[in-house]
């Protein structure tokens, strides 16, 4: 008796095993206990910036921050000048 290997079945089984392993890895690596703790809530203050890059919130009010905020607002205002949204027709009943 000769045992022949069916390459399509073998390839299908390997693909299924790889997909199963990927799903299990994704499930295990994204468990709630594996996520870092959330930063504490920080009240938003007008004209101030909040920097989370160090791991904890740092509120600042420097001249460089004010200049960056003003430049950002100007860029947004300039970008939205030509933006319009056409009115949607009223749906028929």
What's the number of helices? 2
Strand order of the largest sheet: 1-2
Low-confidence stretches: none
Domain tally: 1
Report the helical percentage: 40-55%
Strand content: 5-15%
- Listing every helix as H and every strand as E from the N terminus to the C terminus, the arrangement reads HEEH
Largest pleated sheet: 2 strands, antiparallel
Distance between the termini: 73 Å
Structural class, by secondary structure, is mainly alpha
Q: Compute the gyration radius: what is it?
A: 28 Å
| Cα shape | flat
Overall pLDDT: 84
Total beta strand runs = 2
Description of the molecule:
There is one protein chain. With 93 residues, the chain is mainly α. The chain has one domain. It has two helices and two strands; from the N terminus they run αββα. The protein has a two-stranded antiparallel sheet. The longest helix is centred in the first third of the chain and has 23 residues, at 7-29. The radius of gyration is 28 Å and the shape is flat. The model has no long low-confidence stretch (mean pLDDT 84).
Helix and strand topology:
Layout: H1 7-29, E1 49-51, E2 58-60, H2 63-80
Antiparallel strand pairs: 1-2
Summary of the model, kept short:
By secondary structure, the chain is mainly alpha-helical.
Which key terms come to mind for this protein?
93 residues, mainly alpha, two-stranded antiparallel sheet, 6% strand
């Amino acid at each position: 008796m000769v045992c022949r290997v069916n390459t399509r079945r073998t390839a299908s089984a390997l693909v299924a095993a790889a997909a199963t392993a990927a799903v299990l890895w994704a499930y295990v690596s994204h468990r709630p206990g594996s996520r870092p703790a959330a930063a504490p809530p920080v009240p938003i203050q007008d004209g101030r910036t909040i920097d989370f890059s160090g791991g904890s919130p740092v509120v600042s009010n420097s001249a460089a921050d004010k200049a960056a905020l003003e430049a950002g607002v100007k860029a947004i205002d300039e970008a939205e000048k030509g933006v319009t949204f056409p009115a949607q027709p009223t749906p028929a009943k």
